[in-house]
Each structure stands twice: as structure tokens, then as C-alpha cells.
Amino acid sequence: MKDALVALAPLLIVSLGGLGLMMAEAFGSRKSGGPASDLALGSFVVFLAGAIVSGSLWLVGPESLPGAQATAPWLLVDRFTLFFQLVLCVGAGLAALMAGGYLPEHRLDRGEFFPLLVFSTVGAMILAAAGDLLTMFIGLETMSLGVYAMVGFRRGSLRSTEGAVKYFLLGSFAAALLLYGGALIYGVTGKTDLASIGATIRAGLGGRGASADLGMLLVAMVLVVAGLAFKVSAVPFHMWTPDAYEGAPTPATSFMAVAVKSAAFAMTLRVLLGIFGDPASMSWGAGWPPLVAALAVLTMTVANLVAGRQESVKRMLAYSSIAHAGYVLVGVVALMKDGNGAQGGVLFYLLSYTVSTAGAFAGLIACGSHGREAVSYEDLAGLGKRHPTAAFALSFFLLSLAGMPPTSGFFGKLYIARAGIGAGLHVLTILLLLNSVIAAYYYLRVMVFMYMRDPAPGAPIAKPMRSGYVTSALVLSAILVVAIGLWPTSSLSMALESALPRVASLASAVSLR
């Protein structure tokens, strides 16, 4: 029991921290000026502790922990889980710091935001560790319910309410697709844990009505891939993303862009490699790679073309987030040939994307204050002359998202492209590179407005805010972007060592039930 608690320490720390924050919000004093002044720091400490423990257990190695398999197959404690829990705690911690400055500045200083943030992260951590369909669904709903509430946190804003309702309705539909697909899988295999399902499929379904079972499995695979595509906001399942991102408070938008997306890709890799990782399911002729490749092409191309036409910087970043999901999907397709190398590229990209995107949203928050918020490109006109520090901070992270060396974003795209070439996906890799060039246009457009345009007469002008919390988020994000960019091999090695095994070795880790 004690060994199992050690193995689950990151999840337990964040869960208990969330309970503590709820008690502090309910019974704490308000002498320091509002809930966010204390709860933001408390949330950050909780996430920092979760990140440190996750990294420490990763270094020790879960294989050396006697209780690491005690919770299998429901919760799997392996390097893959610990890597994603580290990434999730980093992304959520940065969002908590942003909220500490943003909520009081914009008259949204209500303490329930932080428990929602923490428990949504708990759901995301469960999702990354889930080795069973039931646990996966519990983690997915735990994460999603908190995010729905954070999107609608601006109670008096019709745009926020609209985004929350769209996200809730479409998210429920996607959850139903996943649930129905999982029910079909259970009906065919009689199993709910991923390892046993994968082993049963590889064994030929035990000779029980093979043709009918195969047809049901194909339907289940399409339903599951569609549900996963919604969660990673892939085109054409992306319609909720711009409205939800724009309507939500910017710290919640940052959390959705980094933590929710990372958890969704962790679930995607678990399902595709754990259930549909057999040679037939991973073949180009009869498996999921062509379906995911089509999603990657649509996601990259449509998102980048639409992003370039936006006048709202926040909506542009929303479509940018969709485009980055398309880049990661290229790495997912490459799993069919280059297993560990492609996984390493995907995991490295998600780490790089997390710190770069969180920094970009923190920079956008820093560029505006209450009543003079940075919303459109025109709002940012001339900011580089009036407030060069705020303009430089936003520009730095936009360059990382664009993939400019020596930032971490450059190496993220490099490793994904290398995985695509290694898997023989030359056309897909070329499309990725072309879309990266298109993306550079709308990132540089922001900088053109900040440094080369003057505000129009009478136009609203963004005024940067002053917040130690937001400044801390910017500094930490910048340090991580630079560190990963200057020493990419260390992070890539960590990502490669965190790669999931194929179905054959995964099935041997958990006995068939």
C-alpha cells in the first residue's frame, strides 16, 4: 500500500492540494485583497510540487518502484505517465500564475477558479495514466467538467456563455462517441483494459465470429478516432475551439491550449498503441494511419488559412493551437513505421508547445489592462514604441511558436519532420513545412503591428498591466523555452525514454483478465 502511494504521489499531491484550496477559499480571510492573491500562489505551489515529484520519480524509474504495478491496469505508472504529469503540472502552474494577475485586474476575482483549475488537472493526470477504458472516461469527464465551468467564468458575458455552451454540447457529443466506441470494443473482446484488448485483437479475437467482430472493430475505431479528434481540436471537429478560447478568461484559454491538448494526445497515444497497435490496425491499407493523415492535412491547412484572416489576436492563437495539433498528428501517423522515434518527437513537441503557448498567452495578458485589453491587432499598434518590454515578451514566444531557432519551437518542428521523413511520409512532411511558413505570416503580423504601425486616431490602445504573477509566468516560460532550445537533446532523450511500448510488450505487462 505504501509503495502504491509513492507511485501515485504526483496525482495524490495535486488532488489533496485541490481539497486544501477549496477549504482555504471557503474559510480563509480576505485581508490580503481577494481570493486570487493567495490561491494563485497556493495553486502554483501545488503544481510545482507535482512537477518536482513527477520528475523525481521519472529519474528514479518506475520500474524500481515496488508499488508501480499495484494500480494496473486502471492507472499505469510508467515513464510515459510521469512525463505527461510533469508537462501537465508545468502548464497548469503557469496558468495559475496568469490567473493570479488576470482575475483581479479584470474584476473576476472569485476563488472558485483555482479549485476548478486544480481538479481539471487531476482529471488530465488520470487521463494520461489511464490503462482502462473506464478510468479513461472518468479522467476525461473530470477534466472536461472543470474546463466547461472555467470557459463560462465571465458570468455577465454573452460571448463567454456562448463558448461554454458550445463546448459543453459538442464535448458531450464527443464523449458519447468515445463511450459508444468503447462499448463496441468491450462487446467484441470482453475486456476493458487496453493491454488485454490489444492482446485479444492480436490473437484474432479467439475465433468468435471473426468477420462480424472485425466489422464492429472498424466501426469502433472510427468512432474512437472521431472522439479523440474532437478532444485535440482537429479539423473538422474544431468548431468549438475559437469561440471557447475567445470567450474564456485568458488563463483558462491557456490551460485549454496546453494542458487539455497534452492530456488528449496522451489518451490518443494510449488508445492507438494500446488497442489498435497491431500490424493490421497500423497498416496504411486497412488501419487508422490514413484517417489520421487526412485529419492532419485538414487541420494544418484549414487552421493556418483561417488564422491568417483573423482580426482578434486571441482567435488567431486559437486557430494556431488547432494548427499545432495538426503538426503533432503528423508525428502520430509516423508511429506506423518509426515507433519510438516518432513518439519521442510527439512528446518533445508537446513539451515545447506547452511552454511556448503558455508564454504567448501570458504575454498577451501582460499587454492589456482592465478596459484597455489587448484584443485585436489594432489594439497592439505601436506597443513596441510605448512599452517595449511587453512587446518583446509577446514577440519572443510568437517566434518560438513560429519555429524560429534557437527556440524550443524550432526543434519541436524539426523532430516531427524528421519522424515523418523516417516513416516515408514525404508528402505529409512537405505539407507540414509549407504550413509552418504560412503560420509565420500571422505570427509576424502581430509584430508588424507592434513595431511598425501607429494606432489610428481615436482607436483603443492597449495599456500593459503590472502584475508580479504574470511577470513570473513570463520569466519561467522564457527560461524553459530557452533551456529546451539550447539543450534539446536532453529533453528529446527524456521523451524517447518515455515512449510507450508496442502492443506485444504492453500486453505482457498486464495479465489478461
Determine the N-to-C terminus distance: 22 Å
Task: Kindly name the structural category.
Answer: mainly alpha
Principal-axis shape equals: globular
Largest sheet: none
- Return residue spans where pLDDT drops below 50 for at least 5 consecutive residues: 503-513
> Could you tell me the mean pLDDT?
87
Tally of individual helices: 21
Radius of gyration, CA atoms, in whole angstroms:
22 Å
Tally of extended strands?
A: 0
Q: How much helix is in the residues?
A: over 70%
Beta content comes to: under 5%
The ordered string of helix (H) and strand (E) elements is HHHHHHHHHHHHHHHHHHHHH
Account of the protein in words:
The protein is mainly alpha-helical and 513 residues long. The protein has a domain at 282-499. Helix content is 73%, strand content 0%. The protein contains 21 helices and no strands. It has helices spanning 2-7, 9-27, 35-60, 79-105, 113-129, 133-151, 158-189, 194-202, 210-231, 240-247, 250-274, 289-307, 313-333, 339-366, 383-386, 388-402, 408-422, 426-452, 468-486, 488-497, 503-509. The two termini are 22 Å apart. Mean pLDDT is 87; it is low at 503-513.
Topology readout:
Elements lengths: L1 H6 L1 H19 L7 H26 L18 H27 L7 H17 L3 H19 L6 H32 L4 H9 L7 H22 L8 H8 L2 H25 L14 H19 L5 H21 L5 H28 L16 H4 L1 H15 L5 H15 L3 H27 L15 H19 L1 H10 L5 H7 L4
Helix pairs in contact: 2-3, 2-5, 3-4, 4-5, 4-11, 4-14, 4-19, 5-6, 5-11, 6-7, 6-11, 7-9, 7-10, 8-11, 8-21, 10-13, 11-13, 11-14, 12-13, 12-18, 13-14, 13-17, 13-18, 14-16, 14-17, 14-19, 14-20, 16-18, 17-18, 17-19, 19-20
